[in-house]
Specification:
Blueprint (H helix, E strand, L loop, with lengths): L3 E8 L2 E8 H5 L7 E5 L4 H12 L3 E6 L2 H11 L2 E4 L5 H8 L8 E4 L15 H29 L3 E6 L11 H21 L4 E8 L5 H7 L19 H8 L9 H12 L10 E4 L7
Helix pairs in contact: 2-9, 4-5, 5-6
Length: 285
């Protein structure tokens, strides 16, 4: 039949065929969609960039790690962009001109290095956490939204927040910034809805990434300070959640990437202002 895919499946009585409308596969086709993913040189951002490229998107791999961005861009046939998301002027200049157009922005760049008790955290540390995990969303979304509005045919923005923005865990700076990322997404969704631009958030749960592996191996400084003050954060309650994920496993970058693909695709064309927790049930316990 025209417009269908024929899928073979074996049965006890011999062979049978199931038919699937090709429009279903088309819902996730990003061919021709110019897409920027920030913090895409490693970890979750790299996983998102690779999956969206596999779905046909023209990927712009943005990261302050220029060499890492080049590596990922070469692998997926994308374009590398050396970008510090805490620099508002740099973001405005880069995102105003990168690519022939801009259809999708995934604000993934972030850091939990400024975690810890407020008793140990300096004002400068607090500000760094807010700058990279929250202010960066504004820095990148503003020029991206301006281009999408000018193009006149909508667009999609996804902000990578965290379950720590839903339940306290790592520190007042990080947790507050990620909670802000969730509400920023909701506010921006209402703001840009008249232009057909959808904005959503994804909150990953426990997802091991190379940065965490390097911390545990002692190659780079751990995000939690040495000899910390007594704190309820990262205590029995919060660490217990991470060791008792209802689905019984930690997440992967692909788990997060699948949710992002859904939110930037036509499959979610009537969804905006939402936060999807991809956490295996972490927020339930």
């Amino acid at each position: 039949m025209p417009g269908t895919l024929r899928l073979f499946a074996g049965t006890s009585k011999g062979r049978s065929f199931f038919e699937m409308d090709v429009a279903i596969a088309g819902l996730f086709d990003l061919t021709g969609k110019t897409t920027v993913v920030t913090g895409a040189a490693t970890g979750i951002g790299e996983g998102i960039a690779r999956l969206l490229a596999a779905a046909g998107a023209d990927l712009i791999v943005a990261d302050i790690d220029g060499d890492g961005a080049q590596r990922v861009a070469r692998d997926i046939g994308g374009t590398a962009l050396d970008l510090d998301v805490t620099d508002a002027k740099a973001c405005a200049a880069a995102l105003a001109h990168v690519g022939d157009r801009l259809d999708v922005l995934v604000n993934n760049a972030g850091s939990y290095h400024e975690a810890g008790s407020i008793l140990d955290q300096s004002v400068e540390s607090w500000q760094r956490s807010i700058d990279i995990n929250l202010a960066s969303l504004f820095n990148c979304s503003k020029p991206a939204a301006a281009r999408m509005v000018e193009q006149g045919d909508g667009g999609a923005i996804v902000n990578i927040a965290s379950v720590d923005g839903m339940l306290p865990c790592l520190g007042t700076g990080y947790d507050t910034a990620k909670a802000g990322a969730i509400h920023f997404s909701k506010s921006l969704a209402v703001d840009l809805a008249p232009h057909g631009i959808r904005v959503n958030a994804v909150s990953p749960g426990v997802v091991p990434v190379p940065t965490l592996d390097r911390m545990h191996a002692g190659e780079i400084e751990h995000f939690w300070p040495k000899n910390p003050s007594l704190s309820g954060l990262m205590g029995p309650l919060t660490t217990g959640r991470s060791s008792n994920v209802p689905l019984g496993r930690k997440g992967t970058p692909n788990d997060i990437a699948h949710a992002v693909l859904f939110l930037v695709s036509s499959a979610s064309s009537y969804i905006t202002g939402q936060n999807i927790a991809v956490d295996g049930g972490w927020t339930l316990v």
